[in-house]
Specification:
The protein is α+β, with helices and mostly antiparallel strands and 183 residues long. The protein is built from 5 helices and 6 strands. Helix 3 runs antiparallel to helix 5 and helix 4 runs antiparallel to helix 5. The two termini are 38 Å apart.
Length: 183
């Protein structure tokens, strides 16, 4: 959103059209006293709250004493419902039990999603790395068969890379199902 204002014909200032005609997701709210500091940033206003994070307008003091405005995205600790933490504490749960029974199960779906997406990217990175710097491996075979016009062998290597990516993705999905039984 632009910080400048547009001057109307009658002399009044109005906000830019993009900010005025938005879906209403941008809203400045007062900040609670417990949220006034996030790391080295001083929180000025709440810009919005989303599914996994809260977005704040903050101020940071630079090394020469200059202030700069920053947008701070603060991830939640995983438990959307603070009453779960309160209930676990009332039953005598310590920090280790809270981690194992509340925080980890609530964060596990996001962690497993990242793992499932990451294994396919790892296979792609492995092949590209082998294409660039390796003398052996599937990437090197792709380059060799492509340069020598051995199309059948080239398609065989491409199919094997796809099978490896699918197998690792299915393995990550099976691990996801085993760890997150309540889904």
């Amino acid at each position: 959103m632009e910080a400048r204002l547009i001057h109307e014909k009658n002399g009044r200032m109005r906000s830019p059209p993009a900010a005025r005609e938005s879906d209403g997701s941008f809203e400045l709210r007062p900040v609670l006293r417990s949220e006034l500091v996030a790391g080295r940033y001083r929180i000025l206003a709440t810009l919005g709250r989303g599914g996994m994070a809260d977005v704040y307008l903050g101020a940071a003091t630079g090394p020469a004493g200059f202030n700069k405005l920053v947008v701070v995205k603060k991830l939640r600790n995983g438990s959307e419902d603070p009453s779960l933490v309160e209930m676990a504490r009332s039953f005598g749960a310590g920090e280790f039990a809270l981690f194992g029974r509340v925080y980890l199960p609530s964060a596990l779906p996001a962690v497993m999603l990242g793992l499932r997406l990451g294994v396919v990217q790892a296979v792609k990175g492995m092949v590209v790395g082998e294409m660039l710097i390796s003398l052996v491996g599937l990437g090197e075979r792709l380059i060799y068969y492509g340069n020598t016009f051995l199309i059948a062998e080239l398609y065989a290597v491409i199919a094997s890379v796809l099978l490896i990516a699918l197998a690792t993705s299915q393995l990550a999905q099976a691990l996801d199902r085993a760890l997150i039984r309540w889904k």
